[in-house]
UniProtKB/TrEMBL annotation:
Single GO term (MF): long-chain fatty acid transporting porin activity
Pfam families the record matches: Toluene_X (PF03349)
Organism of origin: Persicirhabdus sediminis
Location(s), subcellular: Cell outer membrane
Record protein name field: Transporter
Lineage: Bacteria, Pseudomonadati, Verrucomicrobiota, Verrucomicrobiia, Verrucomicrobiales
Amino acid sequence: MTTRKLILTLAAPCVLCAPLQLSASGFQVLERSARGLGRAFSGEAAIADDASIISSNPAGMIMLDGTSISTGLTYADPVVNLNGSNPLGQQADAKDVIEEALIPYFYLSHKVDNQLALGLALYTTHGLKNSYSDDFSAKISPQSTELETITIEPALAYRINQQWSLGIGISAVYAEAKLRGRSVPPFPVPDVESTGSDWSWGYHLGVLYECSENTRFGLYYKSNVNLNLKGDNVVNGNQRAGSLEVDLPETIEFSAYHQLNDNWAIHGDVVWTHWSRFEELNFNDPEIPVTTENWDNSMRYAIGATYFYNDSWTFRAGFSYEESPVPDAQHRTVRIPDADRYWLAVGASYQLNECYALDFGYSYITSATADIEETEIPNGLFDGESDASVHLVSVGISGSF
């Protein structure tokens, strides 16, 4: 068995064919824990209520006792439709261009002593999957798009004093991509299939500041990861070597958490993503057109509350607003018809015994109707609009022992 196949086998529970427009802006994926989903991922860098804190702020591991584990699965049911026409005056509609998906996650942390904690995370940060039928008449170039990622993150946390803790981790990212396109007469665009894969790495840093027993703030930085997806391009049946560079952007997250009393806590999040790194899709092949993207940086805002009902039940809810990095209708494409989106989320945890709890989360995401005006042949020639929504249901188990 090759090294690549061995690693993929070991990490198989965290492989994701992430559908487009499921969670965060662009092609980010946020579905990394059931508890987080149930509060619209508000306050993630500060709450530190299970081992999934590794993916939001590794410094928070210092607040977990003993050995902690968190694992689960999110089911996504998206609805993404396009309505419009092509330059020939033909109606060009597409329904349900994104399939259902299952999104797993796994986290493990261990508190060595009062000053040191170690952890490991397996999940995904980015993904993309859509497809269009052969009778979609506006589909000039992109016919289907798939980007799958696996992220493996070892991390450690160190407590400096009673108020300050630091965290650091390495992000090893494996990615595979497959993009297909076809021409619709009379437009002179070749039939294309491009595949590629790559391993790359980045890092993440976190700071946790505990003002008091009830109030804390978290600051988290996740670096960009530059992928050079090498593989094959097949153009009109002719195969040759090809590559596609994809730069996964860095993010900065600031979170706050405050416990009001024995029953209530509030939490919030502000996240900046450096999407301006995404300038184009370039397959480094003279026969495959370059798609200009020129995205903007984007912001995400979230607020939520947690209700500690009794020793067995905890309830949570949240709301989030995300800006789309797509600057205007001219840069929105049928390959990535991204738009601003709004989250409504609810969730609960049930304590099974002294060690383990069942976690449940549900989110409904809706996107604003967005115009698409593709006027260049390489991009697809489509004039219309897209609308999207998704139901997310997550079930997990968390525990410390």
